Amino acid sequence: EAPGKRLGYAIVGLGQFALNQIIPSFAESKSSKLVALVSGNRDKALQVAERYGVQQKNIYDYQSFDRIADNDEIDIVYIILPNALHAEYTVRAFKAGKHVLCEKPMAVTAEECETMIRAGREADRKLMIAYRAQYEPYNMEAIRMAREGELGKIRLVTSDHGRILDPKVPADQWRMVKALAGGGSLYDIGIYSLQAARYITGEEPVEVSAHISSDTSDPRFREIEELVAFQLRFPSGALASLTSSYSTSPVKRIQVFGSKASLVLDPATEYERHQMMVKTEKEERRVQSPEGNQFAAEMDHMAKAVLEKREPKTPGEEGLRDIRIMQAVYRAAQEGRPVSL
Ligand code: NDP
After folding, report:
1. Residue 291: its pLDDT value, please?
2. What's the pLDDT score for residue 335?
3. For this structure, is 271 an active site residue?
4. What are the residue ranges spanned by the domains of the chain?
5. Mean pLDDT, to the nearest integer, of 194-209?
6. For residue 3, what pLDDT is reported?
7. What's the 160 CA to ligand 1 centre distance in angstroms?
8. d(CA 116, ligand 1 centre) in Å
9. What is the mean pLDDT of residues 187-208?
10. 7-132+296-310 CATH pick, 3.40.50.720, 3.60.10.10, 3.40.50.150, 3.30.70.890
């Protein structure tokens, strides 16, 4: 392919995240361009199309979605819908012959994830899960330091992700409905704590124990869980202690404790303005990385994977692993005992 080639993206679901983070980030991408929109709200889609130079003929709704098969401008479909809709739209996009970038969590069940992976294989198309932190410079630097032994032997990872679910915010309304969200704070933000433990250690957990607490008198938590505290044991003997919350002030923190040094990334998984400190017995220093647009980097990674015919760094299998572990977290909490993976 010619250098500088840009692949065309169709964005499915014009919600908060698509409108505020993803669509504006095409301006900073090198290999990606916005060419199509899929929305249930025609007026909103027309406004977005006008603002970002998308042709009217490239606007679809959920019924006409399958007609993207006839549109050669669309290479990649980026699914930014409520979690329970990820599997259906991924499969339909593959049937239309497109590659798929899908938001986290990948789907609701492991079976759905397996169906998505199989559909991609059958269509001979790429599937990537939008784990943006793995394309964000501070997290990438933390991973490098951990992997290259700069912190010594990694023994412990702690990570906390929380925010206050607000029923007045439209984007939080489907998050309170189990049939659309699939799970509660764990599926939505605890997944970042889980990801951190896995990408920092570079290991897969062998055992999980967990506690869940939800104030069921609070209408927000009738269907989905509020607080999760869970622990993972890794083959090396390293441990992770992780939390997620839907009812406490915002936190997005990762701490890594090695035999030589510890690292604090706080905020760790913000959209920008990350801060990282490394501490040893003798000194404490701030580590600076150039802030990059993680959303543009993520979309370009997917476009490059397609252009160069290689697997993306965060393929469907990566999404499936997290769903399996989160399901084990629910089981461990429910049964009140550790669950082996
Ligand atoms: P929003 O509710 O803001 O957006 C979801 C959009 O999906 C809606 O605006 C709507 O778009 C469309 N939609 C289709 N069917 C439904 C339905 N039955 N109920 C509600 N919406 C529907 O949610 P978010 O943008 O916050 O989240 C969307 C996805 O992105 C989730 O999977 C979430 O986990 C993920 N996300 C990821 C983030 C990250 O940092 N990686 C951050 C935030 C979210 P339309 O009106 O155009 O049809």
Report:
1. 85
2. 98
3. no
4. 7-132+296-310, 137-290+323-340
5. 98
6. 59
7. 23
8. 19
9. 98
10. 3.40.50.720
- Nearest atom in ligand 1 to the alpha carbon of residue 172 is 2
Q: Give me the catalytic one of 9, 131, 192, 330.
A: 192
Pocket of ligand 1 (CB under 6 A): 13-18, 39-41, 44, 80-83, 85, 103-104, 130, 132, 170-171, 174, 180, 188
The domain made up of 137-290+323-340 has a fold known as Dihydrodipicolinate Reductase; domain 2 (3.30.360)
pLDDT tens-digit map of 29-56: 999 999 999 999 999 999 999 999 999 9
Ligand 1 atom with the smallest distance to the CA of 16 is 3
Q: What is the pLDDT of residue 4?
A: 78
304 is catalytic: no
Q: Of these residues, 104, 135, 252, 330, which one is catalytic?
A: 104
Dist. CA 187 → ligand 1 center (Å): 14
Average pLDDT of the segment spanning 246-275: 97
Considering the chain, what is the average pLDDT of its residues?
97
Cβ-contact 341, 204 below 8 angstroms: yes
Ligand 1 center from residue 184 Cα (angstroms): 15
